[in-house]
Amino acid sequence: MNGRKGISRRRFLGTGVAATSTVLLTSRAARAQTTTAETDDIRAGIIGVGGRGSGLLAAMNASPRVRVTAICDIDENHLNRAAASVEADRPELFKDFRRLLDFKELDAVVIATPCHLHKEMAVAVLDSGRHCYCEKPMAITAPDVNAVYKAAKRARGIFQIGTQLRYGAPWKTSIEAIQNGIIGKVVFIRGHRHNIGDLPHDRQWLFERDKCGDTIVEQAVHEFDIYNQIFQDMPRRIAGFGSQALRFDPPGRDILDNYVLAVDYGNKRTLDYSHSWIAVDHVPCDGRRELVYGEKGQLDVEEGKIYFKGADRPELVDMEPSGDTTQLAIDDFFRCIREHRRPMCDEESGRSATLFALLGRKALYEGRVVAMTELLAEM
Length: 379
Ligand SMILES: NC(=O)c1ccc[n+]([C@@H]2O[C@H](COP(=O)([O-])OP(=O)(O)OC[C@H]3O[C@@H](n4cnc5c(N)ncnc54)[C@H](O)[C@@H]3O)[C@@H](O)[C@H]2O)c1
Fold this sequence. Notes:
By secondary structure, the protein is of the alpha/beta class. It has 15 helices and 15 strands. Helix 7 runs parallel beside helix 8.
């Protein structure tokens, strides 16, 4: 980006640095009562500007009345590339996230580092009084989920988790339609995600359980967040089987490459889910799919179609808001800060989606039916 864009953006959107102290509030009650001027820029930073962080940084840069004032990464190449992409904002650069948190010109921080670092960083960001957008999963162990959850509860700032799908079509409108009762009581969901090709081999941490939490925690939390919203609940019990059957590269890889789960939400509500990283190109029915079965009909979330009993053709779900869900989620994060609103994907949904994943992982590793009460006892 050249300097002209930044200058004109600031002219159009208002002034630079005055906003911050009004954005950081002393209590949740106070936050609800305090207003931030419409023209104030929010000063935002980001920790981790690899693959995902680069996309989030572009979304931050495109978000109205946001100025990128700080970037942190341990990789100098990533840091410099990111700085160049928001050159007009002249961000301060850091290699240590704690130094970034010492920087005063900062209201909100986005975290896009490997999963095992989320807990330490999210807690530090929240405890520093900043608003926090943390990539999913919230953490990769039950005690760490609890630590982030508690930090978000005591925080002056807001907490948003990076399960962005629910911010756009077809997920947002489909979930709202289901919650409004369009297919009656939901009794069953059939879901899967079968990825073509392999995870990127230049990111070693993605292949190691103790860094990514395994693929069920790193990736499937997106789906689990959606299922929990559809049922408006968390699973009671999960059984599952899985293996590392076909993929052994890069060296040190110890994550499952396929698994299936049988999930009991209680009260005669169940879910079947499968997930793999072994699919080849052009196999029918691969990719992601969610089919929701209700008393009155069935909703195909990905297709945005509702099939009612007795009807000869499906009704269509409204495909708004359209557009990139990451941009929608980031825009809403900054809007929530301005409007002193709780994000849709907050610490509650982040906690419940991650606990679903951790319960599923425990069932897979231990080869038995595991109850949520057991996992909660570990926290
Ligand atoms: N919401 C989504 O759709 C989505 C998509 C992809 C990834 N993600 C999540 O985003 C996160 C990052 O994934 P990625 O694919 O970008 O990984 P990545 O490896 O490409 O990027 C991680 C970055 O963090 C940096 N980093 C590592 N340790 C650091 C430290 N101590 N301090 C500062 N920077 C550090 C690395 O140098 C790298 O630039 C993960 O949590 C992942 O699950 C979310």
